[in-house]
Amino acid sequence: xxxxxxxxxxxxxxxxxxxxxxxxxxxxxxxxxxxxxxxxxxxxxxxxxxxxxxxxxxxxxxxxxxxxxxxxxxxxxxxxxxxxxxxxxxxxxxxxxxxxxxxxxxxxxxxxxxxxxxxxxxxxxxxxxxxxxxxxxxxxxxxxxxxxxxxxxxxxxxxxxxxxxxxxxxxxxxxxxxxxxxxxxxxxxxxxxxxxxxxxxxxxxxxxxxxxxxxxxxxxxxxxxxxxxxxxxxxxxxxxxxxxxxxxxxxxxxxxxxxxxxxxxxxxxxxxxxxxxxxxxxxxxxxxxxxxxxxxxxxxxx
Length: 302
Description:
By secondary structure, the chain is of the alpha/beta class. It is built from twelve helices and eight strands.
């Protein structure tokens, strides 16, 4: 019964329904490119052949990811995250295509193995946010509940963190910026101000020392919700003081020229998202996702 009706099964059903609703709303309203930009976020891109009914794997298989990138390349303009403030602040004419940025959290090796070759085929830029304290780690990252639970039925490449060599290859591609996702992926709402400062500053110092001063421009708050306190005012100040240029949350929404640069909203790109669903999200049809967003916050609060 758990396999059929676990928490993750319910979440997937709700997200599938929200996708249908968003697609239909976009079709009926004829919505075109919004004034803002859509920052999609991914986690794992791996060949996992099962779905855990209780714990989300945050995974998109490589074939699905390629279909998504191919579709985005057709109907959207994929731009580096670091270019969004300038693009949104420019006086260019109304765009026929929405602006989209691709981001990846947690620094999984599957990004290097599966996502990078696909990004190269389509010339698509991305930002990979890595946890500096787990780079090259041979065990699952401490916060990865899915990997720890399913260790006996998965391959290390499904869950291990990138090595420094893999990160260097990503940077050398010219298509990937490496951002910081903290040093130890601590939950911001449970941290003291000095811990927040350490997480932000140490991760930036490590990345710049290994990969150069053009990296670690942006920060992704672990867990990332402002409503649950994981991207608090104290954390924003710590990230700003550490020298980053911008930071992203997991708050639902489009980035606009009025967005606070250190609290940029994002939209999840899910394994269930067909091209029409990605189109709806990129065009700003987000009302059906308010329900899934509230469900996610409820799950976090439980």
